Amino acid sequence: QVQLVESGGGLVQAGGSLRLSCAASGSTFNINTMGWYRQAPGKQRELVATISRVGNINYPDSVKGRFTISRDNAKNTVYLQMNSLKPEDTAVYYCNFFTTIGNYWGQGTQVTVSS
Fold first, then answer.
1. What is the pLDDT along the chain (115 residues), one digit of tens a residue?
2. Using an 8 Å Cβ cutoff, are 36 and 24 in contact?
């Protein structure tokens, strides 16, 4: 089992920045891809960013150039630096760890961007 704890959400004005963190505990030696997803009210959960164990990164066009994902394998932690935030970035953000023993989600952290 893997337990994920997220931190760093909050309220920010448009154009501002936030940094999310997600730390894993438990069976952490099996972690492969780490990622962030988000879900806005009334919408489906969508990909924000993923990073493989060797550092291959994927972003959708909606956040490319504004968001940066990184990971610290020694700390079993993934980060999401979010710059130039827009009101449409408002959502609950979830971290996701894909491991050889299962797919795990964080509890979610609210990000609200005011205009």
1. 889 999 999 999 999 999 999 999 887 777 899 999 999 999 999 999 999 999 999 999 999 999 999 999 999 999 999 999 999 999 999 999 998 889 999 999 999 999 9
2. no
